[in-house]
Amino acid sequence: MSIASKIGCTGQTLNEWVKKSEVDAGKRAGVPTDMAAKLKALERENRELRQANEILRKASAYFAQAELDRPFKR
Fold it and tell me: Which of 9, 49, 51, 61 maximizes the CB count within 10 A of its CB?
């Protein structure tokens, strides 16, 4: 009986866990788990900031146009 079946997973899953452990330990090339998590969080933050900037850009354009459309006061 294989180790994978003894712990209730497939051989492929166990192999992926071993590879990830080796990467995290610096024994294999790749992106360590903690760095991958940080990268994912930064990508999410970047996406949110881009969306916020787009909203602000559109709001600025809207209010600038509204200011131009106002009657001139002397």
Answer: 9
pTM (predicted TM-score): 0.65
Q: What is the pLDDT of residues 15-54, one digit of tens each?
A: 999 999 999 999 999 999 999 999 999 999 999 999 999 9
DSSP annotation of 44 reads: H
Confirm if 66 and 58 have CB atoms less than 8 A apart.
no
Domain ranges for the chain, please list them: 1-30, 31-74
* Cα separation, 11 vs 63, whole angstroms: 60
Tell me which residue of 67, 71, 47 sits closest to 59, measured CA to CA: 67
